[in-house]
Amino acid sequence: MSGATVAAAVTPGRTATGPADGPWLLGVRHHGPGSARAVLAALRAARPAAVLIEGPPEGDALLPLAADPHMRPPVALLAHAVDDPGRASFWPMAAFSPEWVAIRWALDHDVPVRFIDLPAAHSLALKETAPGEPVEGPERTEEEEEITPVVDPIRVLAETAGYDDPERWWEDVVEHRSPIGVTDSGAPPSEDAPGDALAPFGALAEAMGALREAYGDGGQPRDAVREAYMRIQLRTVRKEFGEGVAVVCGAWHVPALAARTTLAADRALLKGLPKVKTDLTWVPWTHRRLARRSGYGAGIDSPGWYGHLFDAADRPIERWMTKVAGLLRGEDRFVSTAHVIEAVRLAETLAALRGRPLAGLGETTDAVRAVMCEGSDVPLALVRDRLIVGESLGEVPDTAPAVPLQRDLTRSQRTLRLKPEASERELDLDLRKETDAARSRLLHRLRLLDVGWGDPVAGRGSTGTFRESWRLRWEPELHVRVAEAGVWGTTVLTAATAKAASQAVAATALADVTALAEHCLLAELPDALPVVMRALADRAALDADVGHLADALPALARSLRYGDVRSTDTAALTEVAAGLAERICVGLPPACTGLDPDGAEALRGQVEAVHGAIGLLDTGAEPGTGLRGRWGAVLHKLAARDAVAGIIRGRATRLLLDEGRLAEGEAARLMGLALSPGTPPADAAAWIEGFVGGASGGGMLLVHDERLLGLVDAWLTGVPADQFTDVLPLLRRTFSAYEPGVRRTLGELVRRGPVPEGARRDDAAPATGGFGPGIDPVRADAVEPVLRLLLGRPPEPVEAAV
């Protein structure tokens, strides 16, 4: 049967074949609004005695919840193995899913409704899922994937009908054709036209029968098992309710359900199936998760568009353009009523030129791009993200089953007014406020439990101060993560505490234990901290690797600062951190010799991290004393020792200069030695990378200290031509990190040439690019009060100013 025949079959006037009194096999496309409207029309016309749905039978007890006023699709049935919650499957349903429409019709009319697919106990036992990566619906093994490709029946029918886009074909023959018996107002169909309402399903059944004859199981060998179970369930229901039952299932399965088989043959296919104990519940779903690009096997490209087609019974294009205009206006783009009218006209014109019955997503998108977006794909990307795909997040009533940990999390979310949302949003917290501090604790505890609802945002505020910033986004898979974390406890606090203690005992690397200590302080887990501290002391005493100690110290230093913010007793942590710092000071200089380039780069990063950590640990010490004094002596050794890798010597010199422990003249002397003619160019380039590389302000240092710039310039111009290409990549990496303005200024300074000995730049050639020839003392003095105010310094006494 051709795709054109299917198109004709769903056209008014075509009647279905087969018995008029059922059973009615309503083959659908999952999440198709046209299929949903057709199912509604068929159910209204046929008035079946029972409705059967493709889905796990263990979910029958959960079906009445679909009628709860607090249940709002998109939602999904979640099934997971009790002993292995990471092995899970979802059965998603949107408001425009035919299955959801059939369930709601049955519940509204007191008609028995049941699921008849293979039980989740078997399907979960048959599937292999990587931990934390649940997959919706039955899954094939790698061997099955290699044997034969999966047939996409919609694509085959579209190609048969001469279409190169299956979505466009489906829209033309199904979504854009109102099913018989469904009026624009949504009124019930006439009672005398049941055959017309069933016509589309007869046509699709015939088409699928031809495809099954040509392609067999279509690359889905497990479908035979599922269809055998569905046939057995259908036999049982027909004995109970007679022939007048309706089955809503994927159109691909209709020929198999209509096939004549024996009960014994079907039972033989099910013999010996593995089985696991399962739990099922309803969970919120998202339109974004229904999209095919998210990896969902039965996904669609445009769930937001399909939801609009289902909801807009009349004038769908006009209503869609109005939605788009509202979105763009909310983003401060000028879109007038005239734009909306012109976009509708253009979409309809494009549909007529392309021979389509109604403007589809392609025509409306082209019209929006041309009229409302002025040909730009930038605002169009927003339309795709917010409307075509959509950000809808469903809701599930509190009466739905849930693991105790999920219930505790839900209570905490409501108490703290942290509503899960499908769209990404940022949250700024002030830890001095009790509510924000509680929110921070909850988010950190969830991160420890691998429930990634929120991620800290770097750069929005210091993580060691009273402010935190988070990026939140709730994904349906997090329900599986919560179920997995339920093995640790029944509340978020007890679960996080138990997992932290277990990880501390099992950890073998010192850095892992220090990171865990940091998490315990952030999440405020006082009962886990003693276990972590014992493990930390044991690992620190046994680990003699300076690199491991250097990796561990920064987390401890941050933890002590967090303890100050959260008023946590960290005396034991302070003692361990001080011991680690002393051991690093002793062992670091020998560890910095004899390194290859990769090892030197890694150790450079560790030196920087230790420098920052010691600054946090010894904030009250005077320069040159205490722990800071010890560390300063270490940096001096590293900067002056020729055996130390150039990148580390350069970084040590820079750190000392920034701390004020090294005079500018001494820094220039060390640079001159590092860039002397006797130094191999690669080593000299590494020293420059260490001294001015990265985003640490090295560019501005060269701008303001032209002696250092002159040394670099003189060295660079003296590198032999045959060695220049060897050092060029490293230099490019160093200077490419600078701001464009800094690079431009450095280029201008180099172009002007060196400053004469004893002279200043403002005594040389006049400056260009908007700068005066020298400093204006009057204007400079006027800035000083403002700087004092910004720095919190008291105003200068009037007598001193005079």
Automatic annotation (TrEMBL):
Domain of life of the source: Bacteria
Pfam family, one: DUF5682
Start and end residues of each stretch annotated as Disordered: 1-21, 754-776
InterPro entries: DUF5682, LolB
Protein name: DUF5682 family protein
Organism for this UniProt entry: Streptomyces pakalii
